[in-house]
Amino acid sequence: MAKFDPDLNLIFQALSDPTRRAMLARLGKGAVPVSELARPTGLALPTVMRHLSVLEEAQLIATEKTGRTRLCRARPDTLAATADWLEEQRAIWEGRADRLEAYVMKLMEQGDAGKS
Amino acid sequence: MAKFDPDLNLIFQALSDPTRRAMLARLGKGAVPVSELARPTGLALPTVMRHLSVLEEAQLIATEKTGRTRLCRARPDTLAATADWLEEQRAIWEGRADRLEAYVMKLMEQGDAGKS
DNA sequence: ATCAAACTTAGCCATATCGCTAAGTATCAC
DNA sequence: GTGATACTTAGCGATATGGCTAAGTTTGAT
């Protein structure tokens, strides 16, 4: 299997840009080619490509080229790992046993459902 | 009540630095003055101050000066809002009704427990 | 009154980021 | 094969980021 190690530096950096978050939201509705992802942004194509490569390096998306078009799709596993980090911090910060418990429960639930 | 509007740009940007995440983790164990937060980083104080101001502008921490020391504490509400955004995206990306349901349940739970 | 402690401000340097345009390369349609 | 389509690469400029040192400022202790 491919190694999956999310880098929080890259992930959060990628998420810090509204254009990229908009792209991710768009990808939530399904995989799309680069040009379609670019259209609503109004940005030049090289600029969009750059955003995409940031997202891909952060493993938030995966892309695949077929013919002359490149299809982009979201990678929920990375987002899940990120959500887990936040949830963990939240549990600690709130200092509440029930949140910690809920977090553990969710981890177990994922172990059951999240693996392919 | 004080206006609370989390800015995801600032938040994710703040979270993208490992030094700042380490500081947040440290604050999970309780409020501490600047110098104590600085010590484990090995960074110069002005550098640390800068990190702190980034965290504070993102509303991830709050600080309060008493005498000549400034005390820093975490702001779980902002982290919670961020976790919610991620959870929402995850629910969409995974395209699964049960995740969406779990998310809504959590929202309700927070509505019950999270308000001051 | 003096001195150390704990920030704080100002400013410098190196690198990274976000936008662009111009000029490639590689399909696909005819 | 000609031309259009869909990226891709190269490189520029403005601004932001993350580190530093040096020189304040404000308190607390003596």
Summarize the structure.
2 copies of one chain form a homodimer. With 116 residues, chain A is an alpha+beta fold.
Topology record:
2 copies of one chain form a homodimer.
Chain A (H helix, E strand, L loop, with lengths): L7 H8 L2 H10 L4 E2 H5 L6 H13 L3 E6 L2 E6 L1 H19 L2 H17 L3
Antiparallel strand pairs in A: 1-3, 2-3
Chain A binds a DNA duplex (30 and 30 nucleotides) through α4.
Written as H for each helix and E for each strand, in order along the chain, the element string of chain A is: HHEHHEEHH
Mean pLDDT of chain A: 85
Low-confidence stretches of chain A: none
Number of strands of chain A: 3
Kindly describe this structure.
2 copies of one chain form a homodimer. With 116 residues, chain A is an alpha+beta fold. Chain A has 2 domains: 8-74, Arc Repressor Mutant, subunit A (Orthogonal Bundle), CATH 1.10.10; 78-113. The first copy, chain A, has 6 helices and 3 strands; from the N terminus they run ααβααββαα. Chain A has helices at 8-15, 18-27, 34-38, 45-57, 76-94, 97-113, and strands at residues 32-33, 61-66, 69-74. A 3-stranded antiparallel sheet of chain A has the order 1-3-2. In chain A, a hairpin with a 2-residue loop joins strand 2 (61-66) and strand 3. In chain A, helix 1 (8-15) runs antiparallel to helix 4 and helix 5 packs antiparallel against helix 6. The longest helix of chain A has 19 residues, at 76-94. Chain A is elongated and about 50 Å long. The model of chain A has no long low-confidence stretch (mean pLDDT 85). Chain A binds a DNA duplex (30 and 30 nucleotides) through residues 13, 17, 19, 33-35, 43-47, 49-51, 54, 65, 67-70.
